[in-house]
């Protein structure tokens, strides 16, 4: 079985993406998480680029990694500069990492127009720098920048750059599609040629400017590469780098290659989300393997097929990458969608149950009014409970008032909500402030209910989206509000629709709180049921 090394460059190449940045502490935490997942190499930063990256290299030396090797990144020496006097080279030594990743030019266009030096000098720059780093005891990974474009321009010169690195003692030659413009068949053919010509390990580093980075990386491995570079979630400059969250399962599960992190694939989705959250970026719902929609089924015929045999529409079992199957509800739904949702909630239903048709009719009526349940799973579960007459109202609204006040043109808006709710026979009347009317209403509702249901103190609104359904009606248009909530463990979405945005928000808020309480009550029942056999 062929083994492939996984090299992560999220902390260096990924940081070159637009809007992406991490503090030193953030980079350390991410490095530890990558190591825990089983990544072989973690590229920590550009040694000569900025003080923050050098601080990272100093700090990471104090940490005990389980498996990964940390690599410092840098370039070949400058033209007409002795390697021992080249500041970039000295910085790579100063980083004190056991591995150094060095990039050099493979394309004559870059040699002539960017470096403004001769082709002979460029070969010497590669050879001198690799040799110097090897003399200082480093494992050297040589990144042949723009290799594929260079090869298409001049195969002889591109191969000469690889030989310069190889003869100087490089441990791995990495072929880079730096512009990201090559197609899979080109990557495969050129990689195969390089592998056959070089009696040493060859790697691949692809960018995603043609949306081919994952396919190109996999084709390179099929052509003989044994080392793959990329970033988590594909972060990187321009259109990003090759996405390791798709490459790793593709190699390990589809092609059967061995890699150290293969044993931890069920943590892939958690790693993907961790990186997104650390970078304060929205998670791509439709990302392969790790997106929330990756195993979400909506069409009734598809759901029916998945119910009978998940392989009918799922290319891998979702749990193998830490994901889960989701059944979506919309006007396209059939009885299978409703049945699976009801079973998921613990309801005793069969496909022949008359309630199935009742739920579908109610769904159709509500969607005509503008409700959308495929993005509001929790609201749909509450709808099923109401149709089955099993819904428990945890509280009743007696009334609320929302005030938005601006006391001067240079003063901020102040929002305050007053709310009165009834829980059992008790009435709670309280107020809350917030950044806006919905936030104030949410705070007031929580303040009113926390005495009765302490668990809702852990619930936070993580997203709030508004859609105008009939824009021709202008300010009188009907509004759909979708709220995403989380208790730190689970996340759920709820929906509300009204001509009044506050009323629509209130509907979604109520569903959010009630779903949390229902979820906790259901979990408590399961726990009690699991313990009862022990007592008998």
Task: Describe the 3D structure.
The chain has 17 helices and 16 strands. By secondary structure, the chain is of the alpha/beta class. Among the domains are: 5-278, Alpha-Beta Barrel (TIM Barrel); 296-387, no CATH class. Helix 6 (147-153) packs across helix 7 (155-167).
Provide a brief overview of the structure.
The protein is an alpha/beta fold and 536 residues long. The chain has helices at residues 24-37, 51-60, 87-94, 108-113, 119-135, 147-153, 155-167, 184-197, 213-222, 244-254, 268-278, 300-308, 335-344, 354-368, 377-387, 437-449, 501-535, and strands at 5-8, 41-46, 69-75, 99-105, 139-145, 172-177, 202-206, 227-230, 296-297, 326-327, 396-405, 414-423, 426-434, 460-468, 479-486, 491-498.
The radius of gyration is 29 Å
Number of H- or I-type helical stretches: 17
CATH topology of the domain at 5-278: TIM Barrel
Q: Span from first to last CA?
A: 51 Å
Low-confidence stretches: none
Structural class: alpha/beta
| CATH superfamily caption of the domain at 5-278 | Aldolase class I
Adjacency order of strands in the biggest sheet: 1-2-3-4-5-6-7-8
CATH architecture heading of the domain at 5-278: Alpha-Beta Barrel
Strand content: 15-25%
CATH class of the domain at 5-278: Alpha Beta
Q: What global shape is seen?
A: elongated
Described by strand count, sense and barrel closure, the largest sheet is: 8 strands, parallel, barrel
């Amino acid at each position: 079985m062929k083994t492939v090394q996984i090299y992560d460059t999220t902390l260096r190449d990924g940081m070159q993406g637009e809007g992406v940045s991490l503090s030193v502490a953030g980079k350390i935490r991410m490095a530890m998480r990558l190591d825990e997942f089983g990544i072989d190499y973690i590229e920590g930063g550009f040694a000569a680029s900025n003080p923050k990256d050098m601080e990272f290299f100093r700090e990471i030396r104090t940490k005990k990694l389980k498996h990964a090797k940390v690599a410092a990144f840098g370039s070949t020496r400058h033209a007409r500069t002795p390697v021992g006097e080249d500041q970039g080279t000295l910085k790579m030594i100063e980083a004190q990492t056991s591995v150094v990743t060095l990039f050099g030019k493979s394309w004559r266009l870059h040699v002539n127009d960017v470096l403004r030096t001769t082709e002979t000098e460029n070969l010497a720059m590669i050879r001198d720098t690799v040799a110097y780093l090897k003399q200082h005891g480093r494992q050297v990974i040589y990144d042949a920048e723009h290799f594929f474009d260079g090869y298409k321009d001049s195969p002889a010169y591109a191969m000469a750059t690889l030989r310069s690195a190889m003869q100087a003692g490089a441990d791995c030659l990495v072929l880079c599609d730096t512009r990201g413009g090559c197609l899979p068949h080109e990557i495969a053919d050129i990689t195969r040629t390089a592998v056959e010509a070089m009696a040493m390990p060859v790697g691949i580093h692809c960018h995603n400017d043609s949306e081919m980075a994952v396919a190109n990386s996999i084709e390179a491995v099929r052509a003989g590469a044994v080392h793959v570079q990329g970033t988590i979630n594909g972060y990187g400059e321009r259109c990003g780098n090759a996405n390791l969250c798709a490459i790793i399962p593709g190699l390990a599960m589809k092609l059967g290659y061995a890699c150290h992190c293969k044993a931890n694939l069920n943590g892939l989705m958690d790693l993907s989300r961790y990186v997104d959250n650390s970078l304060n970026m929205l998670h791509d719902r439709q990302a392969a393997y790790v997106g929330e929609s990756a195993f979400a089924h909506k069409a009734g015929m598809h759901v029916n097929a998945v119910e009978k045999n998940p392989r009918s529409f799922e290319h891998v079992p979702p749990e193998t990458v830490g994901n889960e199957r989701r059944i979506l509800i919309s006007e396209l739904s059939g009885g299978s969608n409703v049945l699976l949702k009801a079973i998921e909630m613990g309801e005793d239903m069969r496909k022949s149950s008359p309630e199935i048709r009742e739920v579908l009719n109610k769904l159709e009526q509500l969607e005509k009014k503008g409700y959308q349940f495929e993005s509001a799973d929790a609201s749909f579960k509450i709808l099923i409970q109401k149709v089955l007459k099993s819904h428990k109202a945890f509280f009743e609204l007696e009334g609320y008032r929302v005030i938005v006040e601006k006391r001067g043109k240079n003063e901020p808006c102040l929002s305050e909500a007053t709310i009165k709710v009834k829980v059992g026979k008790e009435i709670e009347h309280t107020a809350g402030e917030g950044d806006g009317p919905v936030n104030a209403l949410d705070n007031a509702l929580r303040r009113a209910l926390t005495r009765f249901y302490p668990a809702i103190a852990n619930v936070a609104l993580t997203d709030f989206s508004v859609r105008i359904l009939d824009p021709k009606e202008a300010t009188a248009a009907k509004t759909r509000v979708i709220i995403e909530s989380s208790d730190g463990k689970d996340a759920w979405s709820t929906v509300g629709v009204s001509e009044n945005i506050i009323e629509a928000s209130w509907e979604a808020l109520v569903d959010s709180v009630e779903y949390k309480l229902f979820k906790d009550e259901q979990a408590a029942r399961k726990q009690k049921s699991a313990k009862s056999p022990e007592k008998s």
